[in-house]
Write a structure and sequence with these properties.
With 161 residues, the chain is of the alpha/beta class. 32% of the residues lie in helices and 17% in strands. Strand 3 and strand 4 form a beta hairpin. The longest helix has 13 residues. The protein is globular. The structure holds zinc ion. Zinc ion (ZN) binds next to strand 1 and helix 4.
């Protein structure tokens, strides 16, 4: 089994992208949404929060998804009951905002990166998703500051806006 498929088994971020209603941000997710725009600034990316989209919780279990973007109504739905959400809500929301606001497609490539693995004292080189826009995100390694910086840089560098 090659590393990407292993990764997909460890953690498959099922995301599809479609539609829904009205424009508001669920308060719990507001800091995450705010961070997206802060990060855009940090990456010197001129993207303004036009408040014309919704980020809300919903049950996506029937679809087997962790999060979903509905383009027609500019609505992102996040399922807070999923392991993916509990592990890292920012990754889920940023992935969807990447679709909706940066007009990014999936990028399912992998790279070697030094990562901390829980219970192990030093970083180890792992074959990991190259982008937050990868469908197979964050298996059992720690998404530390260094990795986060790389992922943020990648996310905004390839924005289509
Ligand atoms: Zn996606």
């Amino acid at each position: 089994m090659n590393p990407p498929s292993l990764c997909c088994l460890l953690f498959f971020l099922c995301i599809a992208c479609n539609k829904e209603d009205d424009h508001h941000i669920t308060p719990i997710l507001q800091p995450v949404v705010d961070n997206f725009f802060l990060e855009a600034q940090r990456q010197s990316h001129d993207i303004k929060n036009t408040n014309d989209f919704t980020v809300t919780f919903g049950d996506l279990s029937k679809e087997g998804k962790n999060a979903r973007t509905y383009y027609e109504t500019r609505t992102i739905v996040v399922d807070s009951s999923t392991a993916a959400y509990k592990r890292d809500p920012e990754v889920l929301v940023f992935h969807e905002m990447g679709h909706l606001l940066l007009h990014r497609e999936h990028k399912d490539s992998f790279i070697y990166m030094d990562m901390y693995v829980p219970g192990y004292p030093v970083k180890v080189q792992l074959w990991v998703p190259e982008s937050i826009m990868n469908c197979c995100l964050l298996p059992d390694y720690e998404f530390d500051d260094d990795a986060r910086k790389l992922y943020m840089k990648e996310l905004f560098s390839f924005a289509n806006v």
